[in-house]
Amino acid sequence: MKKPSRVWAVLSITALSTSLAVLPSAQAEPINQAEPINSVQQESSNSVQQEDIITLAPTDASGLAEDLVIFETMVSEPKAKVSLQYDLPDGCTVKGNLPAKSGSVKLTCNGETKEFAPIVLGADGSKIPWTLTSTPEGLGLTYASEKAEALATGVISDNSELIIKEASASIRKTNKEMSGSVSFSFDNTKASERLRSSVGPDPRTTSAHLVTVPSHYRYCPHWCKPKSLHDYCTWSPDQWFKADFRGPCAIHDLGIEETRKKPMNLEQKRNERRMHDYRFGANLRTNCAYFYPAGTLGRSHCNGATHIYQSAVLTATANWDGS
Questions:
Q1: Which residues contact 316 (CB under 8 A, 6 or more apart)?
Q2: Is the pTM of this model over 0.85?
Q3: So where are the chain's domains?
Q4: What is the percentage of the chain residues whose pLDDT exceeds 70?
């Protein structure tokens, strides 16, 4: 298994409340079709549920994001208690004290010190208490809540706890602004002001490519229907600090719009929309690379946030009715 050089993002998704916004979609910028296809195919083979324990094995993230190893699974049945088993990458062992109920735990990965930081968010963005324990295979996480539907996420990196805090705060802010409304959209004026005031791409960046808004995309969240396909990002912010995400959001919208009109059954539509979700995540990370140079905390944090946003759209796809 190829050793990731900087960040390991560990994601697991439990079904989020269908009262939240139906997500944007994507007819992505051209990327290697194989990677997202493999990710979808591995979704069922890499997560096995036995005796109420969901085991997450490493998924090859090559092509989806630089130096990332992803763990993810969909949990569609609401449960009062959820148990997750994270099989750590080869060469990683638990170094910190467990059990833990907050913060992060230290790991040793091929001689380097890393940290694993988990978080569990309810559909309204509120934090759900969890307990992290050591297992023979790696790490086990359990949580119990009346809000059985939740998003459980974890990140392994040099600064995992900071990445989790920043990304979860962004999600909570978004959910607060949404107020549970399926027709929520960001205020275009505020978004434009934020983007105008943000810093441009770092001159040290290794990527000269920026995923931009297609010329035929129509931004009109107040009168176009469905509104969620004409408002850039319905769920996640339109930018991550100085990284502009409007292009990936618009492409995601266009892809879902195309898929929902096709004469396919619901399963086929969800499978195709899932492909848009993976392309959405890949495009977000392309823009992270454009605005932040390789090897910086900025890019690591930006990439960490994109996986949480990608998890959110994948969850919405699992609950999508196809219309």
A1: 16, 20, 21, 22, 23, 235
A2: no
A3: 8-319
A4: 51
